[in-house]
Amino acid sequence: MGQHFDVIVIGAGGVGSATAYYLSKAGKKVLLLEQFELNHQNGSSYGFSRVIRYTYDNPIYVDLMRDAYPLWFALQEEAGESLYVKTGGLDFGFPDTDTFQQMKASLDVSSLDYEHLDKADIAQRYPQFALEDGMEGLFHADTGLLRASRCVLSHIRLAQERGATVMDQTPVRAVMPIESGVEVHTDRETFSCDRIVLTVGSWAKGLLADQGMNLPLKIMPCQLGFYQPGTPADFEPGKFPVFFAHMNGPYGEMPYGIPHEDPSIGLKITTFYGWDTVEKPSQVDYTPSQEWTERIRDFAKQYIPDAAGPLLSTRRCLYTLTPDKHFVIDQHPNHPQVVIGAGFSGHGFKFTTLMGKMLTDLAIDGHTPHDTSLFKLARFQLVTA
Questions:
Q1: pLDDT, tens digit (0-9, with 9 covering 90-100), for 192-206
Q2: CA 152 to CA 46: how far, in whole Å?
C-alpha cells in the first residue's frame, strides 16, 4: 500500500482543481490525480475563456452565482493574476421566446439589477448588432469572461503551495471503497484515503459504473469557432458584450459569443447544444467540422455582420450532460466517503470554484451550506449493485 491521504481528488479539470485548492486550504493532506497532462485539451476545462454571469433562467443558479463571484475575486487576488474580465452581457431575442421569458422571470424573482432594452437601445449601445424588428435584450453589467486555463492552473498552483500532491499522467484503474476509507489503484502504486472526490468529467459514467452506479450521462462533443472581425477594436471587452441569442434553428440552440482583448484570438462563437452525443470518451471525434464553422459564420453574417470574418481557429471540447442539464454534487448513497461532482452540462465552468468549495464541504463535513437541491443523485435511478 502506498501513501495515505486525507482526501484524494481524481480529475484535475475545473472542478477537481478547485476542490484540491479548497481541501488544501482547509488543512487537509490532498492528492490530486490526473490521467492526462495538466491543462490538457481532451475534456471540458481548457481554453482562453468561459462565460461568467449572474443571469440564469433559474433563481437557484442566480443565488449560487452570488456565492461564486466573491470566491473568484478572492482567488484572483491570491493568485496575483487576472482571471476575470468584465464585459457586460446581453441576452437578445424575441420577447415571446420561451427561454427569454424564463430568463426575465428568473431575474425578476431574484431581484437582479438588470436592464430591459429594446432594439433601438441595443443599436445605440452596441451598433455591431443587426437585430430583427421586435427583438429585445436583457443586459447585466457584471457578466464577463473567465480565463479558463489560467483558473484551473491557479487553483492547482495554490493547492500545491499549501502542500497538495499533484500527479498528472496517472490514470486511475480502480477506486475501491473499504470500511476505513477508499483505495485508489494506479499503474504504479495504490494509495489510500479517508475520503475521495470524483471529478472526472466525461469519464464519470465509466468510473461510477465500477461503483454499481448507472449515472445517466451523455457526452456531447461541441465545437468552438474563433472569428476575426473586420474591425477588431470594435469587439474588445468594454466595447462588445458577451451575448446569448435566444433562438433555435439552423444555427443550433442559443448561439453565444465571447469577446477577447487579444485580437489574435478573435470573437468566440458557439452554440449550447444540438450536436450528436456518444456514450464513452473513446467514441469522441475531435475533428472539427468545416460545415459547422460556416453555419456559425452565417449566424454572424445575419446578426453581427462585422464579426463574420475569417476563421482564426476552431476546436472541439466535451459537454457531459445530465438529462435535466443540472449538475451532480452529492455523496455516493452506499459509500458516503465517496463524493461526486459530475454532469456539468456545458454551463458549469463559472461555478467551478464554488463547486470545489461545496465538494470540500461534503468531503469534510458531509453537508454544505450552499443549495444543492437541484444536484442530488436521488433524482435518478442509480444504484444497480
A1: 999 999 999 999 999
A2: 8
End-to-end CA distance of the chain: 26
Residues 6+ apart with CB under 8 A from 27: none
Q: Are 123 and 129 in contact (CB under 8 A)?
A: yes
How far is the C-alpha of 328 from the C-alpha of 341, rounded, in Å?
5
Residues 89-141+218-321: name the CATH superfamily: D-Amino Acid Oxidase, subunit A, domain 2 (3.30.9.10)
Per-residue pLDDT reduced to its tens digit, 297-335: 999 999 999 999 999 999 999 999 999 999 999 999 999
Where exactly are the structural domains of the chain?
A: 4-46+149-216+324-379, 89-141+218-321
pLDDT number for residue 212: 84
Burial of 173: CB neighbours in 10 Å, binned 0-12, 13-18, 19+: exposed
Q: What is the pLDDT of residue 255?
A: 96
What is the DSSP track for 265-319? Answer: T-EEEEEEE-S--BSSGGG---PPPHHHHHHHHHHHHHH-GGG---EEEEEEEEE
Note the CATH architecture for domain 4-46+149-216+324-379: 3-Layer(bba) Sandwich (3.50)
Average of per-residue pLDDT across 91-101: 97
- The dihedral through the CA atoms of 319, 257, 66, 74 has a sign that is positive
**SS3 category, 341:** strand
Concatenate the DSSP letters of all residues of 180-203 into one string: TEEEEEESS-EEEEEEEEE--GGG
Contact 142, 4 (CB under 8 A): no
| Amino acid, res. 149 | S
Element (H, E) at 155: helix 148-161
What's the pTM?
Answer: 0.97
In this predicted structure, what is the pLDDT of residue 269?
A: 97
Who wins on pLDDT, 244 or 210? 244
Task: With beta carbons less than 8 A apart as the criterion, state whether 165 and 31 touch.
Answer: yes
